[in-house]
Amino acid sequence: MKHRIVVLGAGYVGATTAGRLAKRLHRDDVEITLVGADPDFVERVRMHQLAAGQDLPQRPLRELFAGSGVRVRTALVTAVDVDRKTVALADAEPLRYDTLVYALGSTAASEVPGVLGHAYTLSGKPDALRLRTRLETLAAGSSVGIVGGGLTAIEAATEIAESRPDLTVTILARGGVGDWLHDRARQHLRAVFDRLGITVCEDAEVTRVTERGVTLADTSEFATDVTVWTAGFAVHPIAAATPLTVSDTGRVVVDRTMRSVSHPDVYAAGDAALAPGPDGRPLRMSCAAGTPMAWRAADAIAARLTGRAAPEAAIGYALQCVSLGRRDAVIQRVTFDDQPTSTVLTGRLGARVKELICAGAAWGVGHPTVLLPSRRRRVATGPTGDVANRSTYAEPSTGAR
């Protein structure tokens, strides 16, 4: 009987994990199923572009994984039973697994009153399209308030301001905006805000969202025609409803191989996982950490199933990338433990590098049988695979490692 691997979530992390597993394991021994709520691969890092009126290419998952050995299921995950090793799907029969990869990502945090009823978010394609439709109805002179001071807030504000210079765009941040960047990067950021006419209100904590705007911690009101909420992310509650060990925010606690610390047949990666970083702090929710976590999860699963040692080296950082509209960006070089350095690229060169990184990430997902050389090993005997592998099957290399 084949070893059943089910990957939940078909974003960057889930899709990358599934494709890498297909390159590492012999398809006669494993059955890999990728479950996603959308039939297409969604480039979440481009949701601000979609909201601002740009059309993105469609990438049907079934086409991307055709011939790879990965089965694609379009369904909404409603629950996981880690005792019975089943996954409940909306309007479909439950899936059974031997190894589970939990990569359901995150959504917008919505604890502040009024966010769910009155704010727009950029957590996924439906949210971005909903905001896009609303922005298209706005007349010249209308106001857009972006709540948050992180990467999503900056990218949303600059994209909207560039595409709709007739709108008034304001960023409202509880703390500083871009204050984690090097001084050179922050100076460029301010210059771009000035060029695009974006107003920045720092130390402006939003305590409520209303139909007419937001209420601040000092009880003052700030009027907006549209409020976009980017102040933090939260994970789906599915993992917290299981016996899995999770953090106080519901993220699955894993070791450096992305393996659950409580259930060895469950792995988690991306925003949904709480994994140790190079300095002891958890890896932050980010694209920079998500893809390496996907690589690590796939390599660890393949290693254990074929009787080899799983890699456990620390995952670290290299860059922080912030798009500032279509013709500008900040590329911030960081240390392995995520501290900014003085190496900063900006302007059109920064935009080209940012686009290359985003396009490369999507290309990697869309070419799961090309990106890695084929080295499909046979699964070892035994229910967990933690024994010597039987044999090795190799194909000629078809790409760069």
From TrEMBL:
<dbReference type="Pfam" id="PF07992">
    <property type="entry name" value="Pyr_redox_2"/>
</dbReference>
<keyword id="KW-0274">FAD</keyword>
<comment type="similarity">
    <text>Belongs to the NADH dehydrogenase family.</text>
</comment>
<protein>
    <submittedName>
        <fullName>NAD(P)/FAD-dependent oxidoreductase</fullName>
        <ecNumber>1.6.5.-</ecNumber>
    </submittedName>
</protein>
<feature type="domain" description="FAD/NAD(P)-binding">
    <location>
        <begin position="4"/>
        <end position="297"/>
    </location>
</feature>
<dbReference type="InterPro" id="IPR023753">
    <property type="entry name" value="FAD/NAD-binding_dom"/>
</dbReference>
<dbReference type="GO" id="GO:0016491">
    <property type="term" value="F:oxidoreductase activity"/>
</dbReference>
<dbReference type="InterPro" id="IPR036188">
    <property type="entry name" value="FAD/NAD-bd_sf"/>
</dbReference>
<keyword id="KW-0285">Flavoprotein</keyword>
<feature type="region of interest" description="Disordered">
    <location>
        <begin position="376"/>
        <end position="401"/>
    </location>
</feature>
<keyword id="KW-0560">Oxidoreductase</keyword>
<dbReference type="InterPro" id="IPR051169">
    <property type="entry name" value="NADH-Q_oxidoreductase"/>
</dbReference>
<feature type="compositionally biased region" description="Polar residues">
    <location>
        <begin position="389"/>
        <end position="401"/>
    </location>
</feature>
